[in-house]
């Protein structure tokens, strides 16, 4: 969107941003112009961000990165409103609800101007949530990316209803689906953690969770009716034995979300679980080879090429792409402005457990977070770190 205003006094013309400069090269700080907000936009002073595996897929795998050009990263942010552009009269929830100084957070991914690993970003007002009074900015920044992933995957990919607002009298899924088995593989991941909480809130009752045994007590509290450990060699057979054998020709587990997308770690066992007409939504990219200090990763974006020939006939494989959630105009208008902050304020959704990544500088914190992702250190937690040093 074209810039229509100049920057207010006190806002720097340029600011530091963390950039990928080459695949698997150390991150660098570059100086980028601070962009005045256009119509319907907001300038945010970024105080906190979170790191996700996508940052590693970009840095080590070159995913969504233009070769030869520094790429500013970061899909989530939390900070304060520094400037407001003119109101966009076409939107039902414009930024007239925001004021300079408001504490906000969000998930944005469309361009580098709205990336989170920089001290100022410019984005649309509908990409922002106001901070609820019961949370800090560092807690809030752990939420939007994967709560939005959960809401998008369940509605868009599995086609299961999550009505909003939830009627005051309560809502339960239609009886034909309320008790169907839903498998959440990788329930201790950030995606899985929010997925379980969403299913619990909307009354889906037959949730099967797969995670390391150390997480099972917590996952039961979040609504998992049964938990299985993916380290057990016959975990797929255990899960199928648990799922009720039906007399009709329905699959034993009609809905599956693979929150991990690992070819060998999650998808190969799922070839033994998914049956004809099971819907299986998979977090892209599929990881053929995980990045490490010595090994370059390999990814696959085309589900048709993943374990081809190993799936039962009629399994519906869906590659999840949360970056498309704005195609749903209801989500564009209400997801970040209303749904995410309301669920948090009501205590329906608890933020991930935090792991605060330390470092003396912006660059050090960003690099330390990336190194932790490479080491596969996060386990039932979200990496969050400070962006701007000053409030
Ligand atoms: N395409 C999309 O729209 C989209 C959106 C969001 C995320 N993603 C992708 O989804 C993946 C997960 O993201 P995230 O942020 O949720 O990751 P995360 O929280 O960092 O994932 C770490 C967790 O993964 C679990 N895990 C690792 N291997 C597993 C396996 N084989 N089976 C079950 N659990 C396993 C570990 O569980 P334990 O602690 O139990 O060992 C750990 O707690 C990433 O690749 C990300 O890029 C894609």
UniProtKB/TrEMBL annotation:
Pfam families: ADH_N
Domain Enoyl reductase (ER): 22-384
SMART domains: PKS_ER (SM00829)
Superkingdom of this protein's organism: Eukaryota
InterPro entries: ADH-like_N, ER, GroES-like_sf, NAD(P)-bd_dom_sf, Trans-enoyl_RdTase-like
A GO term, aspect molecular function: oxidoreductase activity, acting on NAD(P)H
Gene3D superfamilies, A to Z: Medium-chain alcohol dehydrogenases, catalytic domain (3.90.180.10), NAD(P)-binding Rossmann-like Domain (3.40.50.720)
Keyword field: Oxidoreductase
Similarity field: Belongs to the zinc-containing alcohol dehydrogenase family.
Protein name as annotated: Chaperonin 10-like protein
Organism from which the protein derives: Cercophora scortea
